[in-house]
Amino acid sequence: MKSRMSPRESVIAALNHEPVDSVPVSGMAWTIGAIAGGFTTKDYAQSGSKMAKGQIAFWDKTGVDLLHPTSDMGQTAEGWGVKMRYEDGLTPMLDVFAVKESEDWDKLAVLDPKSDGRMRVTIDAIEYIRERLGDKVALMPYVPSPLTSATHVCNMEQVMMDIVLDPDPLHRGLKTMSETIVAYIDAVIDAGGDGALFATTRASGEITTEDQYREFGAEYDQQILRAVKKQGGSNILHVCGVTPHFELLSSYPNANGINWWDRGSNLTIEQAKKSYGDRVCLVGGLDQTTTLILGGPDDVRNEARQAIKAGFIDGTGMILAPGCEISPKTEFVNMKAAVTAAREFSFRR
Ligand SMILES: [Zn+2]
Predict the structure, then answer these.
(1) Average pLDDT in the chain
(2) 242 close to 264: Cβ distance less than 8 angstroms
(3) Domain boundaries, the chain
(4) For 7-345, CATH number?
(5) Which residues are close to ligand 1, an ion, with C-beta < 5 A?
(6) Cβ count within 10 A of residue 278
(7) pTM summary value
(8) Ligand 1 centre from 171 Cα, in Å?
(9) 288-297, pLDDT tens digit by residue?
(10) 200: CA distance to ligand 1 center in Å?
């Protein structure tokens, strides 16, 4: 009998629409990783070995196939001069923005992921986890896209004003950030990572129009994904709004998967499978805002079963996951129940 695929192989196979033994499971664990490892969020956000130990502890308690070693949105933004606020038990927050007016976009520099900001923390964590867990897990950290990064270094209203009134300096800033992001993902892959959970979070109708996203988002996203592919990496786009520009994102020639909030947005997993299932791997099915926090293992099991029935109808192209970061209030047994359900229901409906 053929031996089971490793979790790492299974994630990559699902992203490439190849057959899998069962639906792989992932969960964006940031602060819950710190909790799993018994670290303060500040220590976890500043030390690669602590982040790695927290991620391994989360993996140990849940059995997920794919980890996204990350602490917060500031890991790159801090390199561009954003000041963070740390409060125990909470995900570190962006506190003081670096870009205050449109001329400031030209002051951004291309960063070195090994020394600027806190990208190094994730790079070290990946090296540490890969050394200890080998192929027992796939590793794709959260990496913000250029337009998402723009809204981490500058407040969102200002970015939206620049899109409409003063686009040239913003475009130059997006180019600088793109070069940094390519270097970051290269370093992630060199350290043993499998690519990126690439946050295209502004590709949603309540933030940008599709035309705006095409010009200020997609253009840069696709350049970065081309560079990632050259390195042999995979990607999952992450969009967490309620009206995602799914048509545009799924038409990227080099997107492998899309993670979105199927339970809270205007696109269910059934509809996504019908309309986009042959283009991209669907990454979703679990509601991080309700079932995972408020429900128990049986509720999660039912939700997982229903999602797999809808999204895995052709036996590939799905990863079971929450639509955004797992709340630190989530019980580990709930994520574990999702993993057990995926093993049980992938080929038994
Ligand atoms: Zn999100």
Answers:
(1) 96
(2) yes
(3) 7-345
(4) 3.20.20.210
(5) 240, 324
(6) 11
(7) 0.97
(8) 24
(9) 999 999 999 9
(10) 9
